[in-house]
Fold these 3 entries.
Entry 1:
Amino acid sequence: MLKQLTIACFSLMVCLAACVDATNWRPCGGTGRNTVKFTVEGCEGRRLCPVRRGQSYWVEMQFKGSSDADTLVASVLGKSRGMSSAMPLSTNNFDSNACDYLNGGCPVRRNTVHTYRYPLFIEPFFPPSTYLINYGLKDATGRSQGCARLIIRVM
């Protein structure tokens, strides 16, 4: 009995540690199934990710290559209440060439786990609001290599 209780407590502690370490995200429908892990600096363990205008946050996505690719393009789309469709949240400061932020650079290899890490700047002119964000990585053919959704609150 004591052994079972010890195992149960240990399992609970491991689960809680995993929850606190991760950003609360979901894969983007069918296109995000290759996404292994997604984190945003300061959002660990939060359902709603608070970000401040004028600051940068490290975004990290681990994904398993869905196909071989020589190039990789990043995009950030957001939708707030009252918006009929998602809008690009990237600006001139956003570098969409994801290869420059990939561990080891491109090419992406099929069935290999890659890590993308980028310092995302929240522009001072973004309206304070809550947004559903799609952060995606696509190859030159438009095939999704990784995609994650999360809810942010711009303050």
Note: The mean pLDDT is 82.
Entry 2:
Amino acid sequence: MQVRDLIPGQARKKSNPSAMEHLSERSAELTDEFKSFVGDMEAMLKNSASLQGEELARARQALEERVHKAKGVVDEKGNRLAQYTKENLHQAGDYARTHPWTVTGATLALGVAVGLLIFKRK
């Protein structure tokens, strides 16, 4: 139980998914699109072995369309992922500027922990 739970009428903020969860979702979307693309390419290659003339031209057109679609999806999702990362980076910078001693303490603790691990190995 937190202190804000004890205060009557205290508005609770909606919890947002963590940055790692969001990045994992975006990464999974890109992975799914890539797997779908590879599956489509394999199927088209298998089916195109015996094609000739107009059928071959249609298969090539379908392949070009699928490649174009995959590039668009990857670009869009990659841009959204980059934008989300930039936003989180700005939020981290804002936090560091408003809470410099907290960040300094956390950095110091991390440095001591890494130093102890390195020293312990030797």
Note: DSSP finds four helices and no strands in the chain.
Entry 3:
Amino acid sequence: MTSPGALEAGRTVETADISLMRESLNGLTALDVQHVYGNLLTAPQHHLAAFDRLLRR
């Protein structure tokens, strides 16, 4: 069993990561770098969804 506090902490970290990556993505003009950031962004989005799913239980 996972502590709700730990899940909330994980959710907070992933939300911050998503925000930072989106902020970093703004203003980038190199398509290859945009593509890399887009790929990197999927991991914290998936992690956030998992934390949310576990918190709803």
Note: The chain has two helices and no strands.
